[in-house]
Amino acid sequence: MTEGAAQRPRRPSRFGGAGVAVSRLTLTIVLANLIGLVILLVGSFGVTQYRDGLVAAKLEGVRAQAQLFADVLAQTAVEESDCDSRANETFQTRICGHSLSERDVNEVFNRVWDSFEGRIRIFNAPSSTDDPVVADAGALLIDDVMLREDEIVVEQLGPVDEARADNIFWTIAQGAEAFLKRFMTGGFRREAAQRTIEAELNEALQSSPFAEERGATSVRFNEDGELVASVSVPIRRVQAIYGLVTAEIGGIEELVSDARLAILPFFGLACAAAILSSLLLTAAIAQPIRQLAVAADKVREGIAAAARARIPDFSQRKDEIGELSASLRAMTQTIYARIEAIESFAADVAHELKNPLTSIRSATETLEIASKPEAREKLMGVIKKDVARMDRLITDISNASRLDAELAREAREAVDIRKLLTDIADLYRMTAKERDAPVAFDPTGSPIYLFGNATALGQVFRNLIDNARSFSPADGSVRIYMSPPTERHKSVQVVVDDDGPGIPPDALEKIFSRFYTKRPKGSDFGNNSGLGLAISRQIIASHGGVVWAENRTDDAGDILGARFVVELPTA
Question: What's the whole-model pTM score?
Answer without folding.
Answer: 0.46
